[in-house]
Amino acid sequence: MESLTREFYSGINFRHGGILTAEMPNEACTELIASNIGWLQQGLSLLGHIDEATFVNSPQGLAPHRVGSHLRHVLEFYECFLDGLGASRIDYDARKRDDMIERSRHVAAAKICSILRRLEGLSLREDRALEVRVENGDGYLASSVGRELQALSSHTIHHFALIAVTLRLHGIQVDPNFGMSPSTLRYRTARQFAANSEAA
Predict the structure, then answer these.
(1) 10-residue block means of pLDDT along the chain (200 residues)?
(2) pLDDT value at position 200?
(3) Residue 128 DSSP SS3
(4) How far is CA 84 from the centre of its chain?
(5) Is-contact 49 85, C-beta < 8 A?
């Protein structure tokens, strides 16, 4: 594939902290919903800055990693979470593995918008207990809505970091903050502030 030099800047920053326990205050859940919405908006913005070939193809030497496959994987985790809320039972192994999501930016964008609407419609008066199916097993583990929102955020960051690597190998300049965890961004900001203070 011809090397591309498009730039992508999300302009999105996230600030949240605190120790997350099995159940947490409603404010923390609301903040986690907002963070996940922010990640998905970042993904939606990304789709408008790349072409179809970049979305569906692996860069040389990185097969089978593709932007589309990583994004589909992320989105289907959100769907499993949202689909299981009613019964308070989440099964991340029940992913649909819809390959149309990873083969079309338009399908992926529509899926993101659908998930965003569902997340924006969540009304949590308080954190509540959930059961989450053990990966590749039949048992369930105790969790909570807040804990799963945190897990989804971390999972998304991880795959966005892999997407960033994939894009760079396609020759696309990526915002250095894309796929970077909020704690790392806070650490870098604090280090830069300390260095500027010492220099002054």
Answers:
(1) 34 35 65 93 94 96 93 98 96 96 98 97 85 91 95 96 95 85 69 73
(2) 66
(3) coil
(4) 18
(5) no
Residue that the structure tokens 């870098």 belong to: 188
What whole-number distance in Å separates Cα of residue 65 and Cα of residue 4?
18
Give the model's pLDDT for residue 123.
78
Name 25's Cβ contacts closer than 8 Å, sequence gap at least 6: 126, 127
* DSSP state for residue 5 in the 8-state scheme: -
Structure tokens at 62: 């990185």
Give the span between the Cα atoms of 135 and 86, in whole angstroms. Answer: 20
Look at the chain and count its residues.
Answer: 200
In order of their start, the domains of the chain are 23-175 (1.20.120.450)
Query: Cα–Cα–Cα angle for 49, 53, 59, nearest 5°?
Result: 100
Distance CA 127, CA 182 (A): 22
Q: Give the pLDDT confidence of 155-182 residue by residue, as tens digits.
A: 999 999 999 999 999 999 988 888 777 6
Distances (CA, A) of 168 to 3, 7, 14, 52, 59: 10, 10, 23, 16, 9
